[in-house]
Amino acid sequence: MEGHGGDPVSLGYQFAREDDARAAASDLDRRFDASELTGLRIYRVRWNNDFIVEAAFPQNTPETRLEDARALLGESGSPVHPDDLTDYKRATQEGGGLPGWVRRLFGS
Q1: Are 57 and 9 in contact (CB under 8 A)?
Q2: In this structure, are strands 78-79 and 39-45 parallel, antiparallel, or unpaired?
Q3: Of 45, 55, 86, 89, whose CA is between 20 and 30 Å from 96?
Q4: Tell me, what's the pLDDT at 49?
Q5: How confident is the model at residue 29 (pLDDT cuts 50, 70, 90)?
Q6: How far apart are CA 3 and CA 59, in angstroms?
Q7: 57 strand-pairing partners
Q8: Residue 37: Cβ within 10 Å count
């Protein structure tokens, strides 16, 4: 499904190794031009030492291009639910605390 509204479409994929996350991000950067891939970031997940690659695309990106990105990221990563990605980013920006999904997981 194509993105709607003015918000970019963000894909998040989790990787166990930093090398895998960096390789996937590098592949995305090579295969998509700047008008297609408007943001690319790697986060280190502090509580389990995994890495999340977030790729942002304009809201009008064709589904076929998003599927290309998902296929590339999915070669060695696993998808992160959009709500979990949002929670992680919010916790990172706030400078601490566990994301809501982690708190819910442990019943806090």
Answers
A1: yes
A2: unpaired
A3: 55
A4: 86
A5: very high
A6: 4
A7: 9
A8: 20
